[in-house]
């Protein structure tokens, strides 16, 4: 609209720019809405949740109305949607904050040496420990890892290096995707049905938990390993072939080491994903109060199942066992977060010199 | 292997290559066999349950009558969870892809990953020990003021262990998966389309509505279906939160709630014996078929519109 000639008189009153709200307007409205909501809420004696909800509503409505009055309808809609997006984000993060706070405050009181080194064997009417559950969780997850990593990694190698676009590879890819959606309890039922047929009806053992978890873990390992192997440059493979190295040695000595960082990250994340699974272990591993180091025989306790059973079936001392459930939940969350952290660090630490 | 070795012919297949190639193919086939095995073993162990009598089916005349209310509860809880999670997830995904500055969106990404990392049993613990009791006044209010709507007809639960609470917990659990996939699609929107819209004077929301959402529609649909699949199969959160009585009702906030297949298995498996366990396994097979169909559908949608790697 920067005309060279003088603009016609009739258009002179049309402003070049719409009036705009100042850039601090959203923050101003947040502050005002919070203050107003706090005033109303405190006068009426509402809870914090009520005040926050009211503040969000006031903010969304207030900003939209103000924008409608000063700017125009389109700008008002834009502001409305922007506010809604931020409100959605806030709502989505509230449970996370609340959950972490609750678990930490309830669980921290339980943590002590006895809690980590005792089992619940013959413990009645006093706080015991979760040693048996930690041992069980570690052993079962180890079994799942031992099964999943070779199968998952070799499958990923097949998909990337041998299968290519073949029909079999296509089916494997598709079914791996579908497999990620298998409900965990179905995995548990599968392991139960399998061992019922092999060993005898009603068998419960730690190895079964490993099988069930590996069913959930394999697709994650395959997906992540496949992505990582695809990232290995074809130049590296061709250079190796040109030197006369057989294909399998090229894969083992060149491709795998290059992709190792990503594969380790993927496997660690997969472990973090399945270590908290409860439903399959409830069915195939059962639960016990004693330490059981034998994966091949007898029921085996695990952290998630311990949390579940001590909170929902606390027996004669509900307060003690419910407290222990929170403590075990804290330990479980710490383990999962540590695994996530390790996964990220491993990604950085083992990364090949060439940036991904 | 060539029978007439020549200097210029194709190189001899080395033994190591042969072994390794077949090893990897065997691993791939293991996955196919395992998946078939899941269906097979569940069927073998489930068949006795299909013909079980009322004594083993909590009084239901046949297996269909036993599993139907559970299917209803499963679908109800999952659909409500999806209705809650989908708008929130799209909002979060948009905030990451188009609203937040880069540094903030990285933090949001971490937090959403964290949300996905929390084990389901901990969500269950939180739902029963924290969220449920805090929702009791809300349910009371809903029953008092909106009782004419069948969903809120009450009487309101006094523990908060309702299907509504279970659905909210489920919604939190499926939020990360829907967010992750939608965000992936949103950021793939062609940059030129976005800038063309902006250059025509579109506001940010108009740009999103005109350029981003149409592009991402199929991705959102499949993300929602994957979230639905996850919610259908989720066990522990429902088993812990819900005070289930296995009836069919639309009332979302009372003490008598429909149960879900997965929660029913988790709650009753330990005490079940003989044919009862077979019936539970058969119901697990039903769940497997439902989630398989939902995931199959979602993956087909993704595969049809695939624009690079969807995850």
From TrEMBL, chain A:
The chain crosses the membrane at residues 24-42, 48-68, 80-101, 130-160, 172-199, 205-222, 254-272, 324-346. One of its GO terms (molecular function) is phosphate transmembrane transporter activity. Residues 134-343 form the ABC transmembrane type-1 domain. It comes from the Bacteria. Part of the binding-protein-dependent transport system for phosphate; probably responsible for the translocation of the substrate across the membrane. PANTHER family: PHOSPHATE TRANSPORT SYSTEM PERMEASE PROTEIN PSTA (PTHR42922). This is Phosphate transport system permease protein PstA. It comes from Nocardioides pocheonensis. The gene is pstA.
TrEMBL record, chain B:
GO terms for cellular component: plasma membrane. InterPro entries: MetI-like, MetI-like_sf, Phosphate_PstC, Phosphate_Transport_Permease. One of its GO terms (biological process) is phosphate ion transport. Keywords: Cell membrane, Membrane, Phosphate transport, Transmembrane, Transmembrane helix, Transport. GO terms for molecular function: phosphate transmembrane transporter activity. It is found in: Cell membrane. It is a multi-pass membrane protein. Pfam families: BPD_transp_1 (PF00528). The chain crosses the membrane at residues 20-44, 64-94, 106-126, 168-187, 235-253, 279-302. CDD domains: TM_PBP2. Gene3D superfamilies: MetI-like. Residues 71-298 form the ABC transmembrane type-1 domain. Part of the binding-protein-dependent transport system for phosphate; probably responsible for the translocation of the substrate across the membrane. This is Phosphate transport system permease protein. It comes from Nocardioides pocheonensis.
């Amino acid at each position: 609209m920067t005309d060279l000639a003088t603009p016609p008189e009739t258009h002179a009153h049309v402003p070049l720019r719409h009036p705009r709200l100042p850039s601090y307007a959203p923050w101003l409205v947040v502050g005002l809405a919070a203050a107003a909501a706090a005033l109303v809420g405190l006068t009426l004696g509402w809870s914090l949740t009520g005040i926050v909800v009211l503040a969000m509503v006031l903010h969304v409505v207030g900003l939209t109305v103000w924008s409608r009055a000063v700017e125009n309808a389109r700008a008002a809609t834009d502001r409305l949607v922007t506010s809604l997006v931020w409100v959605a984000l806030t709502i989505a993060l509230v449970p996370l904050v609340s959950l972490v706070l609750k678990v930490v405050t309830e669980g921290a009181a339980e943590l002590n040496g006895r809690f980590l080194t005792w089992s619940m064997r013959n413990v009645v009417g006093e706080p015991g420990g979760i040693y048996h559950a930690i041992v069980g969780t570690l052993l079962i997850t180890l079994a799942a890892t031992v099964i999943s990593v070779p199968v998952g990694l070799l499958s990923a190698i097949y998909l990337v290096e041998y299968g290519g676009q073949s029909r079999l590879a296509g089916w494997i890819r598709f079914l791996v995707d579908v497999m990620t959606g298998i409900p965990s309890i179905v995995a548990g039922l599968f392991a139960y049905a399998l061992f019922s047929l092999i060993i005898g009806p009603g068998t419960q053992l730690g190895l079964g938990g490993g099988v069930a978890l590996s069913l959930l873990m394999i697709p994650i390992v395959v997906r992540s390993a496949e992505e990582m192997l695809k990232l290995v440059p074809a130049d590296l493979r061709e250079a190796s072939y040109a030197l006369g190295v057989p294909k399998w040695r090229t894969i083992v000595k060149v491709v795998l080491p290059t992709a190792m960082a990503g594969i380790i990250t993927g496997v660690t994340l997969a472990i973090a994903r399945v270590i908290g699974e409860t439903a399959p272990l409830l069915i195939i591993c059962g639960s016990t109060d004693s330490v059981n180091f034998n994966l091949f025989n007898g029921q085996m306790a695990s952290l998630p199942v311990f949390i579940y059973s001590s909170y929902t079936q606390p027996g004669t001392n509900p307060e003690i066992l419910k407290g222990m459930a929170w403590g075990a939940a804290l330990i479980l969350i710490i383990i999962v977060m540590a695994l996530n952290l390790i996964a990220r660090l491993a990604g950085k630490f083992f990364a090949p010199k060439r940036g991904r | 292997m060539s029978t007439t070795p020549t200097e210029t012919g194709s190189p001899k297949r080395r033994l190591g290559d042969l072994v390794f190639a077949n090893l990897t193919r065997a691993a791939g086939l293991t996955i196919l066999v395992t998946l078939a095995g899941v269906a097979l073993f569940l069927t073998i162990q489930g068949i006795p349950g299909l013909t079980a009598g009322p004594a083993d089916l909590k009084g239901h005349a046949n297996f269909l009558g036993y599993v139907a209310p559970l299917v209803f509860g499963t679908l109800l809880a999952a659909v409500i969870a999806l209705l809650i999670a989908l708008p929130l997830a799209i909002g979060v995904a948009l905030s990451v892809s188009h609203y937040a500055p880069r540094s903030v969106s990285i933090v949001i990404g971490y937090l959403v990953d964290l949300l996905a990392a929390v084990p389901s049993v901990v969500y269950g613990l939180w739902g029963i020990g924290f969220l449920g009791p805090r929702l009791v006044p809300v349910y009371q209010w809903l029953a008092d003021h909106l009782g004419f709507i069948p969903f809120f007809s009450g009487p309101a639960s006094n523990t908060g262990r309702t299907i509504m609470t279970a659905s909210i917990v489920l919604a939190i659990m499926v939020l990360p998966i829907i967010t992750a996939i939608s965000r992936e699609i949103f950021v793939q929107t062609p940059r030129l389309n976005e800038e063309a819209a902006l250059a025509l004077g579109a506001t940010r929301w108009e740009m999103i509505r005109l350029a981003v959402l149409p592009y991402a529609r199929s991705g959102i649909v499949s993300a929602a279906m994957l979230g639905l699949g996850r919610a259908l199969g989720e066990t522990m959160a429902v088993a812990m939160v819900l005070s289930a009585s296995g009836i069919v009702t639309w009332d979302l906030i009372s003490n008598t709630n429909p149960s879900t297949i997965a929660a029913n298995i988790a709650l009753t498996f330990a005490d079940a014996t003989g044919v009862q366990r077979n019936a539970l396994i058969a119901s697990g097979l039903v769940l497997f078929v439902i989630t398989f169909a939902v995931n199959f559908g979602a993956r087909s949608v993704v595969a049809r519109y695939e624009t690079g790697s969807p995850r």
